[in-house]
């Protein structure tokens, strides 16, 4: 159980490039050995992959231990690889929500989604992930996938959420969490954190105080 400070090709916005659950972690093909070494902190098998041959796995996917939500431009070979991993898969064909990682945040207990999503799409996401899904914002942010990072042990969220919002997130995700920033002041924590209940990758630009808050929120201390 550990937290690893790293970057991806010099970019501390790790949440654009990788996605993790308690079952598997998606990382870009050809990731630098130092990034791969850090990803061992997640303590799950690493699946090198791409979306439309680009490395933005965190931006374009949502993932828990049951399912994987994908954008419309995932190609057939990539789909075969994801299905071989034994995950339920859903391709979202609504172009407004194709940056799935922006619009869905989930663990193995619940999912929250952009409140502008159609009800039928929310239902299909819930079925694929095997959880209840709730349409809501986090603070002023409809892009909930970047505003909160939930695991099965905790969560870390946009640092200006209210006490009422914090209590709601704790009830939905089944564990307490905390608000924080990442990467020396970035309020959208999903940009700089990739985590599961065993470990986390945190952007190298993050301060010691931020890393401590993230460790606390994800119960990784």
| Run of helices and strands | EEEHEHEEHEHEEHEHEEHEEEH
Low-confidence stretches are none
Mean of residue pLDDT?
A: 96
Whole-number total of structural domains: 1
What's the helical proportion of residues? 25-40%
Alpha-carbon distance between the two ends: 8 Å
Shape: globular
Which CATH top level class fits? Alpha Beta
Question: How is this structure best described in words?
Answer:
- It is a single chain.
- The protein is of the alpha/beta class and 221 residues long.
- It has one domain (2-217): L-arginine/glycine Amidinotransferase, Chain A, CATH 3.75.10.
- Helix content is 27%, strand content 24%.
- It contains eight helices and 15 strands.
- It has helices at 33-39, 57-60, 76-84, 100-103, 119-129, 144-147, 163-173, 208-217, and strands at residues 2-6, 19-20, 25-28, 46-49, 62-63, 67-70, 88-91, 104-106, 110-113, 132-135, 148-150, 155-158, 178-180, 193-195, 199-203.
- The strands form five sheets. A three-stranded mixed beta sheet has the order 1-15-14, with helices on one face. Strands 2-3-4 form a three-stranded mixed beta sheet, covered by helices on one side.
- The longest helix is centred in the middle third of the chain and has 11 residues, at 119-129.
- The radius of gyration is 15 Å and the shape is globular.
- The model has no long low-confidence stretch (mean pLDDT 96).
